[in-house]
Design a protein that fits this description.
The chain is an alpha+beta fold. It contains 15 helices and 23 strands. It folds into 4 domains: 127 residues, Schlafen, AAA domain (Methyltransferase, Cobalt-precorrin-4 Transmethylase, Domain 2), CATH 3.30.950; 78 residues, no CATH class; 148 residues, Heat Shock Protein 90; 78 residues, Orthogonal Bundle (Arc Repressor Mutant, subunit A). The longest helix has 15 residues. The protein starts with a helix and ends in a 6-residue tail after the last strand.
Length: 480
């Protein structure tokens, strides 16, 4: 790691994956607690010789080799660490000080230190004693998708096969009237969708958990997933209780319809044009939130999902197999479907788009709906938080900018004030980087990246040449 990167690490400070330990000439017990919590969570980096504030104090250079030898001895001792771990600390110099770096990868096992389970929550190592929390940890570490679990005693009569004609129509409509499911017999459709098959680890054949959640009768769903439930709550006037409530415990297809109806009932639908088409901003946002909480949740976890609408925000919560534990943005998001069979089914029938589009749409439409970005938090409970502001008007934040047509005439373009500032700036400074543009117009870099991505998608601006040596252009409007 370069000196510049190390400086950044120490400046940012401790996080869910970074821990600083001062240490003297020996390694204290709390270092091993952090090792245990990192193994049980997302992994991370421990720096010995650094104070909590990020100030570098170093460790005694002569003691460093013995510290590493004792560290390896402790983590290899089954009476102290169970299961034992295999790590390779590194000694390095930084600004004339000796430091020790311990890289801890995430483990497929649940580890204990002196018979205590530790988990990493934000920048702290926390003792885990509740059975439900330990169970969630095991779920997170499973190498298989729980949606693939086969239930050999689930029969055709346990499924809502009466939904299949509607599903065929939805799939055909999504694909311009042509889809393999359109003329498939029921059995072939279910196999094609991955809902019926053989568990290669046990040899059992039958319908899997994905089939039960997508098409199961309500009593069968509650039999195989007792904690499956989505609480939809409106809490605007009565903040202590609720103004309206809907409990949904049915198959995923009908759950989506009921929850969308609840959202449409309680969200203000602001006028918004995208090109020449009117888009329901509240509908687009609610769709992405609800599709995510339905198709990416961990159904075997003992946690009720929530969809809550308050005066200044709405949010969803659902059990999750976390990947990073970090906030999710369009810049760092990597598609990782928690239930790929269910996700593919939703895409086939038009309830979801390609992987990754949900995050982009939430940021795009969220800003147009309330003027602020949403928050997406990847933890054992996945949270999407969208700010609400009924008084905000996107139209009031828009302006017009002049563009040249292919015939040399002027025309006007409706855009946001920040988009207008970007267009006018790059017209005069085509070589400017996004960070320079952000500074020049007084916006955050993330905001500028979002605006410029939208302007590129809609064909207003384009990047010519490479990322380093290229330049920006404002594209002319083509006319017949």
């Amino acid at each position: 790691m370069t000196t510049e990167k190390m400086k950044t690490v120490f400046t940012v400070g401790e996080t869910v994956t970074v821990e600083f330990k001062r240490c003297g000439n020996k390694i204290e017990s709390d270092v091993y607690q952090t090792v245990c919590s990192f193994l049980n969570r997302f992994g991370g980096d421990i720096y010995l010789g650094v104070e909590d504030s990020g100030a570098v104090v170093g460790v005694p250079a002569r003691a460093a080799p013995d510290m590493i030898k004792n560290f390896i001895s402790v983590i290899s001792n089954p009476d102290v660490f169970s299961p034992t771990a295999s790590l390779s600390p590194m000694i390095f110099e930084y600004e004339g000080k000796t430091l020790i770096h311990i890289r801890v990868p995430p483990s497929s096992e649940v580890h204990t230190h002196r018979r205590i389970v530790y988990d990493r929550i934000n920048d702290s190592d926390v003792k885990v004693t509740a059975t439900s929390q330990i169970a969630a940890m095991y779920i997170r570490k499973r190498s298989i998708y729980t949606e693939k679990k086969v239930f050999p005693y689930v029969r055709d009569s346990d499924l809502r096969l009466d939904l299949l004609p509607r599903i065929r129509i939805m799939a055909a409509n999504r694909h311009n009237g042509i889809h393999p499911w359109k003329d498939m017999p029921d059995t072939e459709l279910l196999k094609s969708a991955g809902l019926y098959g053989e568990d290669k680890s046990t040899g059992e054949c039958g319908y899997n958990l994905a089939a039960v959640m997508l098409l199961g009768r309500d009593d069968i769903i509650l039999n195989v997933a007792p904690a499956y439930r989505t609480d939809a709550i409106v809490r605007k006037v009565n903040r202590d209780r609720y103004d309206d409530r809907l409990i949904v415990q049915t198959n995923l297809i009908e759950s989506y319809e009921r929850l969308m109806g609840f959202a449409e009932k309680h969200l203000l639908d602001k006028f918004y044009l995208e090109g020449d088409a009117r888009i329901s901003l509240s509908g687009a946002i609610a769709r992405e939130m609800l599709v995510n909480t339905l198709m990416h949740r961990e159904f075997t976890a003992p946690y009720f999902a929530k969809f809550v609408i308050e005066k200044d925000r709405m949010y969803t919560e659902n059990a999750n197999r976390a990947v990073t534990g970090e906030p999710v943005t369009p810049d760092n998001f990597e598609p990782n479907p928690k239930n790929p069979i269910i996700a593919a089914f939703f895409r086939n029938i038009g309830l979801a788009d390609e992987l990754g589009s949900g995050v982009r749409n939430l940021y795009k439409y969220g800003r147009r709906y309330s003027g602020r970005d949403p928050e997406l938090i990847d933890g054992d409970v996945f949270r999407i938080i969208v700010p609400l502001d009924d008084s905000y008007s996107f139209d009031a934040e828009t302006d017009k900018v002049q563009r040249t047509t292919s015939k040399g005439k002027n025309c006007t373009l409706n855009c946001t004030l920040s988009e207008k500032a970007i267009i006018e700036y790059i017209a005069e400074n085509p070589m400017a980087t996004q960070s320079v543009i952000a500074t020049a117009i007084g916006k955050s870099l993330r905001s500028v990246k979002m605006d410029m991505a939208h302007l590129q998608e809609t064909g207003v601006i384009a990047r010519i040449g490479s990322r380093r040596a290229g330049h920006w252009i404002v594209k002319p409007v083509h006319t017949d």
